[in-house]
């Protein structure tokens, strides 16, 4: 209802709402919401401009993961793209099986993509 007066109304949520009808319903155990503790190496990648999961929220989630490495990439938002050297960092993490000695300094060179509007024809 809150989106009824917006430009897109609820159109962006229609697929999501329809899929909810197909999901089984059940009761979750109380422990489902307990923080996860793990010593498995984790590589988290955040975009500074991410409105969905900004770096500070990722840091909160990683507190219980003792071998987590957090790469924060400037000029990027939310999504699976790996700009600049991030793809190489992922490969190095996978090869080493750890982010312990991962040199993240290369991400400082990543810049926000230019925003352009095509000229009218």
Major pleated sheet: 2 strands, parallel
What's the tally of helices? 3
Strand order of the largest sheet: 1-2
Cα-atom Rg, whole angstroms? 19 Å
| SSE pattern | HEHEH
Round the mean pLDDT to the nearest integer and report it.
Answer: 85
- Percent of residues in beta strands? 5-15%
The tally of beta strands, per DSSP, is: 2
Terminal CA distance reads: 38 Å
Quaternary class: single chain
User: Which geometry do the CA atoms define?
Assistant: flat
- What portion of residues is helical? 10-25%
Structural class assignment: alpha+beta
Q: Which stretches are poorly predicted, pLDDT < 50 over at least 5 residues?
A: none
Write structural notes for this entry:
There is one protein chain. This protein has 121 residues and is α+β, with helices and mostly antiparallel strands. The protein is built from 3 helices and 2 strands; from the N terminus they run αβαβα. It has helices spanning 14-20, 55-62, 86-96, and strands at 42-47, 68-73. A two-stranded parallel sheet has the order 1-2. α2 (55-62) links the parallel β1 (42-47) and β2 (68-73). It starts with 13 loop residues before the first helix and ends in a 25-residue tail after the last helix. The model has no long low-confidence stretch (mean pLDDT 85).
Please provide a brief summary of the model.
21% of the residues lie in helices and 10% in strands. The protein has a two-stranded parallel ribbon. The mean pLDDT is 85.
């Amino acid at each position: 209802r809150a989106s009824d007066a917006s430009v897109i109304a609820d159109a962006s949520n229609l697929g999501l709402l329809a899929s909810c009808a197909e999901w089984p319903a059940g009761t979750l155990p109380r422990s489902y919401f307990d923080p996860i503790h793990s010593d498995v190496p984790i590589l988290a990648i955040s975009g500074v401009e991410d409105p969905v999961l900004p770096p500070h929220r990722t840091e909160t989630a990683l507190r219980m993961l003792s071998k987590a490495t957090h790469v924060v990439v400037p000029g990027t938002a939310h999504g699976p793209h790996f700009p600049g050297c991030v793809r190489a960092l992922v490969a190095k993490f996978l090869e080493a099986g750890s982010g312990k000695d991962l040199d993240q300094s290369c991400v400082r060179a990543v810049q926000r993509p230019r925003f352009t509007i095509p000229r009218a024809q």
